Amino acid sequence: MSFPKSLTILFPLLFTLLIPFTNAATFAVLNKCTYTVWAAASPGGGMHLDPGQSWTVNVNPGTTQARIWGRTNCNFDANGNGQCQTGDCNGLLQCQGYGKAPNTLAEFALNQPNNLDFVDISNVDGFNIPMDFSPTTAVCKSLRCAANIVGECPAELQTPGGCNNPCTVYKTNQYCCTDGPGTCGPTPLSKFFKDRCPDAYSYPQDDPTSLFTCPAGTNYAITFCP
Q: Mapping DSSP to helix (H, G, I), strand (E, B) and coil, where does residue 12 land?
């Protein structure tokens, strides 16, 4: 069978356009808190979520260093410019880049080697909102960090609306691991987070107990105040 020349040219173009959406992941973000959360995603932007409201974020395969988090006590004008007490993203409702600590993070890298997604909850940037990060279309580990970290936060890490990670406060290699692999380890302050959220990152090199995988193409749900 032969095709018109125009279709012969068009088919490769359509195939190329469809490839990026193969195994794209959908993240259903739900606010179950009793207060408003301004959800943020990098990539993805941002959304005002009143209690009970949800937001769907679609992320292309191959995306790395991605994260979703919640912002609190925000005030934006009609143009989407303003500030948030925690998790602020350069003063923009439609987030560009990462948020300001403290913020509880759902982090992920999609379609990585061996057809795996790498996923985690991180307190490396501190904690502001309880979070659940769970697969919805595959059997792999559900992650949760829902302890009363803000209420129990050590005095030296306390900040309005959240609990800072020690790296944010002290900015030394002991807490930030800036001198490379194997140059830092758990501390009494990181242990505060680990004791309450054992599946979440408590310091930057906390990989063995904090980084998990799901099959590429999995969809996920992220719930604030689960």
A: helix
Q: What pLDDT sits at residue 180? A: 87
Q: What is the token pair recorded at 128? A: 């502001």
Q: Are 39 and 89 in contact (CB under 8 A)?
A: no
Exposure of 71 in the CB half-sphere (CA atoms within 13 A): 29
β-pair partners for 68: 41, 106
SS3 159: strand
Positions of the chain with pLDDT lower than 50, given as ranges: 1-21
> What is the C-alpha to C-alpha distance for residues 152 and 126, in angstroms, rounded to an integer?
13
CATH annotation of 21-224 = 2.60.110.10
What's the whole-model pTM score? Answer: 0.88
What is the per-residue pLDDT for 184?
93
Supply the pLDDT for residue 17: 40
Whether 124 contacts 204, CB under 8 Å = yes
Q: Residue 83, class by beta-carbon neighbours within 10 Å (0-12 exposed, 13-18 middle, 19+ buried)?
A: middle
Instruction: Enumerate the domain spans of the chain.
Output: 21-224
What does the buried/exposed string (b/e) look like for 147-164 if buried means 16 or more CB atoms within 10 Å of the residue's CB? bebbeebeeebebebbbb
| Cβ atoms of residues 108 and 117 within 8 Å | yes
CA–CA distance, 156 with 164 (Å, rounded to integer):
9
pLDDT in the model for residue 182: 84
pLDDT at position 4 is 44
